[in-house]
Amino acid sequence: MFPVKALQKLALYNAGACWTTLHYNCKPERSILVNWENIDTVLLDMDGTLLDLYFDNYFWLHFLPERYASHHECSLEEATSWLKSLSDSLHGHLNWYCLDHWTEQCEMDIHALKEEVRHLIRFKTGTSEFLEFLRRMNKQAILVTNAHPKAMALKIQSSGLHDHLETCYSSHIFKLAKENDGFWAALQSHADLDYSRCLFIDDSLNVLRCAQREGLPYIIQVLQPDSTQPPRSPSEFPGVLSLTELITA
Ligand SMILES: [Mg+2]
């Protein structure tokens, strides 16, 4: 994407002279320098940011279509097509993430099916190191996820995330998805957060743009949410392949 060894200054983050200078380079020299003195709290997405999105992609694109076809006695192609049309109709809305809604629509216990493949839930490379770094730096680590509370509990318990996080919020308690206008204002008043001292990390561009519109000044995008898929193209936000790129000595 960029010439080898040609360090390119792509963005000077507009948040004060001592915040962040983003440099892009080819691996492994790429880096984002964060002035951690300006940060008290890190708001962290779960799926695709701390956990490998491989689990979700495998479940929704492979495991569920097969089980749906078997349960409803239809072809895999019919099952895949029906699930995709349902997914498309829900995209951007909280019900897209709602296990109860999917259970009702599919007439199958989606949570129980997720339990069957829970052994595939895993940290992304660099998650342990980054969370340990935050602990050493006395930064508050707060999970903010669109996952349904039952899915959040399953993933936190299966991965061991509960050992590293101060608080966990599922967007379902606010009845808004993170990409819906009003979510970040609702979270701020509920959790009494000073967004001027918060860093927010997520893999979803729609979520990041909504957070920016609602006043979060420090935002970073994870560019490779699924370790088995190629990285996404850089956006207007500083991007990392691994959270370890944010660790300073
Ligand atoms: Mg995500």
- CATH architecture assignment of the largest domain: 3-Layer(aba) Sandwich
Listing every helix as H and every strand as E from the N terminus to the C terminus, the arrangement reads EEEEHHHHHEHEHEHEE
- CATH class of the largest domain equals Alpha Beta
Shape call: globular
Residue share in helix: 25-40%
Largest sheet: 6 strands, parallel
> What is the chains' assembly state?
single chain
Measured by DSSP, the beta-strand proportion falls in 15-25%
Low-pLDDT runs of 5+ residues are 1-29
Compute the number of structural domains: 2
CATH names the topology of the largest domain as Rossmann fold
- The number of distinct helices, counting runs of at least 4 residues, comes to 8
User: Ligands bound here?
Assistant: magnesium ion
